[in-house]
Amino acid sequence: MEIYVNWVKTNPLLSAFIQFAVLGTLGEFISISIKQKKIGPIGNWWQTLSKVLAWGILGIIIKYGFVGIKGAVRALISNGLFPGIFKDGLGWAFSVSVATNLFFGPQMMFFHRLEENIIHWKWDLKGLVAAFKTLIWFWIPAHTVTFILPVNYQIGLAAIWSIALGIILGITLPRNKN
Fold this sequence. Notes:
The chain is mainly α. The protein has one domain. The protein has helices at 2-10, 12-36, 45-78, 89-120, 128-148, 151-172. Helix 2 (12-36) runs parallel beside helix 6 and helix 3 (45-78) packs antiparallel against helix 4 (89-120). The chain is globular.
């Protein structure tokens, strides 16, 4: 684990890119395979490569988002605009998770949808409302756990959560009728 932590510390953006490129793409692959009830591609070679790049870019955006939201929550607490109970521990983790998912999450999901639309050469916002709902029932609890961890593990766990969500959505969403 020490090698991983040192790598994340010395390469925060590159590590965020790689972790999301690999794990985000894997989560999407698993979700599609579950929905189709067979192991299958997430697109042609160009789309797959584009999705890896898109997930990596999203990892960098999420890294900046995590740092920025934590700074905002700290500022709110230090200026007496947020209760002191949210200063550390579980209260801190929960408050950062709520702020992340309510103020940053929708824009990040919309950006990811734009990436998908560019990759597939279409304009489709179908499912975006359902994606926004995951911010409440999945991402707030998941990121509460994420923000309890030391900072150098947070992006990695956030990327792993994308696999968990891929599995959940693969099981619960209707199959593609192709």
